[in-house]
Amino acid sequence: MAVYALTGFSLVSLLSFGYLSWDWMKPGLVADVATDPMEKSLPPTFTRPPHIIFILTDDQGYHDIGYHGSDIQTPTLDRLAAEGVKLENYYIQPICTPSRSQLITGRYQIHTGLQHSIIRPRQPNCLPLDQVTLPQKLQEAGYSTHMVGKWHLGFYKKECLPTRRGFDTFLGSLTGNVDYYTYDNCDGPDVCGYDLHEGEDVAWDQSGKYSTFLYAQRVSKILASHSPKEPIFIYVAFQAVHTPLQSPKEYIYRYRSMGNVARRKYAAMVTCMDEAVKNITWALKKYGYYDNSVIVFSTDNGGQTFSGGSNWPLRGRKGTYWEGGVRGIGFVHSPLIKRKRRTSWALVHITDWYPTLVSLAKGNLSNVQGLDGYDVWPAISEGKESPRTEILHNIDPLYNHAKYGSLEDGFGIWNTAVQASIRVGEWKLLTGDPGYSDWIPPQTLTNFPGSWWNLERLTDGLRKSVWLFNITADPYERYDLSEQRPDVVRTLLMRLVHYNRTAIPVRYPAENPRAHPDFNGGAWGPWASEDDGEEWEGGREPLKSRNKKKKCKICKLRSFFRKLNTRLMSNRI
């Protein structure tokens, strides 16, 4: 049976889904957009370092953008991507902290100790302080640096905060999951606190403003107050479209015909985010930045399918090493691109943005050792071959070991019970437990999960611990070739062994009770002193301020009624 290089589907495979939501025959979805002859003129030259706007969305699924055939409206993102370069061989990490750490450091998570899970609010952990971050390198190159949105790289000490890691200003949340209006975050029963910060202070006065709007407005204010003659870097890490599923009701109304409630709310959040990007782009043009700007758009991991997201037609979801967890939406839009309006199949990974953007900024990389990223600007702008030929998706020694894995299954060189994944050339290898492995069509049916749910359930391979795919020919991971090509399996296992020798110990300390927001006036924030070690267990508890405790109770009460109102409104829509 023939397998097509671009789609990876045979006719029988297509029919086995019952329907195909992505119209592969529609022009412009997978093919290059036709170039206007007038666009062939050379772009402006780099007379001065470009302004860089990096936009990162949270939990947006691979299918959830217009040009991937989605039923969700994203006209701004579609237009920016069509006029720039779409990255269709672009990889991220399966969960929040790993993607953000690799973006900021240009290093695989095995080289920062963050190879297991995420940084949790009560852990005395953060991005290693010895790492020179992307914004710090841009500061060295003369850039003004600003961050707006979700940090999620640790905050137990002040040295861990964004303003201590290279950003001149910061407005956003430190944890990974907050209410879009109240900015409350609960890390377990009765462990709740407020999480919106302006610089290193709690931004109590911003409560009640929808975060997607708030963040876009802040970007506009930054641009309005800065001079376009001086280079600027703005990292916009939207909270959207992570849970909780919250959106202004006028956006939900657009999707009232969607039967699935979670998908309806999720779609509204995506479209709202799309309009926020429109406002940011408009501000770049209004204040004179656009002609010398580079806009990078990236998702942080695959979509969460039981929260409305879709990675169709890829396999898996957020938190897995299947393509649905690690293949991201990415594009670059810039007047400075030499070959615009095209789709690039160059291999690109989220670690590549560090050297790429520092090089664009004419910064100095000679004193940065051990980067795992590559400068991929020539591949993006000029269509040259990518310098990247392989990607270590991860090696996680702490994740639950696969029941049926063994050193014997790994040719005596690798324990296949360990969760790991790597891509070398066109081949991808997974060992251990890669995570939930189904193919899940968009959740548009009213009775989701419904009768079709079992159509694409994985029914074989439950006793496996090794998978091998030719990702170029089979991007949807339907044909496991591990038994047919043991030679390739062994070669890729050797690459895992190579990387594992360079890994540093996992940083995943126990949670500390001192992190409780009640000890910080009802807000999440640093709790350890500058002199405390990373494994600090704390001493005696500080005295609790009665006024702050009262403020926290009021905050929680307000949050309760807002959430109650949101649920009532949700049941009406």
Describe the structure.
- The protein has 573 residues and is an alpha/beta fold.
- It folds into 2 domains: 51-388, Alkaline Phosphatase, subunit A, CATH 3.40.720; 408-502, 2-Layer Sandwich (Arylsulfatase, C-terminal domain).
- The protein is built from 12 helices and 18 strands.
- It has helices at 11-16, 75-83, 96-105, 134-140, 211-225, 249-254, 261-286, 323-326, 353-360, 377-382, 486-502, 546-572; strands at residues 51-57, 85-87, 90-91, 144-150, 169-173, 184-186, 192-194, 197-198, 201-202, 232-237, 293-299, 330-333, 342-344, 348-349, 390-396, 419-424, 427-431, 466-470.
- The longest helix is centred in the last third of the chain and has 27 residues, at 546-572.
- The termini are far apart.
Label this structure with key terms.
single chain; 573 residues; alpha/beta; Alkaline Phosphatase, subunit A; Arylsulfatase, C-terminal domain; 2 domains; ten-stranded mixed sheet; four-stranded antiparallel sheet; 18 strands; 25% helix; disordered C terminus; Alkaline_phosphatase_core_sf
Question: Strands, helices and their partners?
Answer:
Elements: H1 11-16, E1 51-57, H2 75-83, E2 85-87, E3 90-91, H3 96-105, H4 134-140, E4 144-150, E5 169-173, E6 184-186, E7 192-194, E8 197-198, E9 201-202, H5 211-225, E10 232-237, H6 249-254, H7 261-286, E11 293-299, H8 323-326, E12 330-333, E13 342-344, E14 348-349, H9 353-360, H10 377-382, E15 390-396, E16 419-424, E17 427-431, E18 466-470, H11 486-502, H12 546-572
Helix pairs in contact: 5-7
